[in-house]
């Protein structure tokens, strides 16, 4: 008992001397990739109205199917990027995987910025999606492995914050910058990310797994500060690595592996099924047909501001209120807002006439049952307020916490591959939903997709109640022990192990 107390006192003393300033610098360098991800994801929102306009370049003008592909092909690229990161995370490491995402990102923006044909727009958007998928699979894992458990919740929300800030930047720039220059501007954060990451450390956990203990200790000291005693944390990580082996098919049938993987996959599936991606991708066209009080481009920018505020609030509350409490709040807010939007779209008079020729689905969003040109409705603030509440709720919980929990609960030995699988499932779901959204709205109006999103929000609430553990202030090793034992986060070690630590 005295040895255990001595160890805890020693650890408490060392933790009190932590200096996280360099950790925050490393996190900032990495999450520039998420800034680029948020920027590129919603690139289609202000662009589609211009490319569907009669004044658009005939070589680039889009019809219904082309608009659907331009909006959704990004998510297909993200799925491919997730698969690539699944291999690269363990082959070359998390940091290099993040840096490599700058290649497809830069090439994609160049194609879109200089597009003279539709294929250049589609290929460019696909490539920026590949970059987004790579960063989505690599950055949360990198951040979780370099962060101390006391601040992992806060810095773990940084990827979502910077993605939202990237989205807001796109909406703001779109107010004054031509669409081609929006693509050129998107290259800047990717290049800056590569330059900064060159000077940042690799994950100490990965270095220890490669047997490079001296370099791992040096990197950990750089991240924690010169006055931090790294021995205890290095010992914990090394013990975790030593007790792990390559996962076999039979091991995947044990709770310590399949439970966290299933939880992560289902969370990413439900996250996308809430409808967040099609709402963001088609935000300005939706507002354009929803008869909101302000111009759609200003409404989109306002939503971006609300989203940024809510993610910042979630970062503050992440390690105070806990993950589950925020997920409950998030589910309830999304349910209330999507239910309101469902009722609004259902009670609006139907459009009796077919859509005129040479128009796209999102030119007539909801013409089947909600937003007909021959049945004009008075401008209203309800759609914009409901959408803001939906975005606020999502950004408070199911946005940042899903990414954070994925990096926390996945088995340490299979984290690189499993995170790639989760991201791939997430983006394949987003692709199918985003592509189908245009056609659903064209045929049924906004009522059907909003009703679907409402049902999914109820499922999110139930899944959080039954399946998701509270990981606040738990080390990665304690979280893994929870799934191993099925009942406790506490790791029991023999006195000899404690003494050697």
Could you explain how this protein is built, in words?
- With 501 residues, the chain is mainly alpha-helical.
- 73% of the residues lie in helices and 0% in strands.
- It is built from 25 helices and no strands.
- It has helices at residues 2-15, 21-41, 44-51, 64-91, 94-100, 102-113, 118-146, 152-156, 158-174, 179-185, 187-197, 204-209, 213-224, 231-242, 255-273, 276-281, 283-289, 296-321, 323-347, 382-396, 400-409, 415-444, 447-467, 476-485, 495-500.
- Helix 6 runs antiparallel to helix 7 and helix 15 (255-273) runs antiparallel to helix 23.
- Mean pLDDT is 79; it is low at 11-16, 349-378 and 493-501.
Give the uncertain stretches in residue-range form: 11-16, 349-378, 493-501
How much of the residues is beta strand, in percent?
under 5%
| SS content category | mainly alpha
| H-E string | HHHHHHHHHHHHHHHHHHHHHHHHH
* Count, helices: 25
> In total, how many beta strands?
0
Structure in a nutshell:
This protein has helices at residues 2-15, 21-41, 44-51, 64-91, 94-100, 102-113, 118-146, 152-156, 158-174, 179-185, 187-197, 204-209, 213-224, 231-242, 255-273, 276-281, 283-289, 296-321, 323-347, 382-396, 400-409, 415-444, 447-467, 476-485, 495-500. It is an all-alpha fold and 501 residues long.
